[in-house]
Amino acid sequence: METPPWRDRIRTEDELLEQLEAQVEAARRRRAKALTEGVDELGSVYALAKELGLSWTAVAHAIKKYTTA
To answer: What average pLDDT does this structure show over 44-59?
Structure first.
């Protein structure tokens, strides 16, 4: 089997990267929604962060960045 020309391979890989980036963005938004639900359940960003073993600033940043339009 012959290897496709480099231009075609680059185009194919660029398309794959775009798809992966869209999937990562969607996953970050779903994660932020779950984090928000965790904050609602536990009562604070700090309590959720402690439960997850994360810094409260990381949790707060993820929620803020990925739950806004």
So the answer is: 98
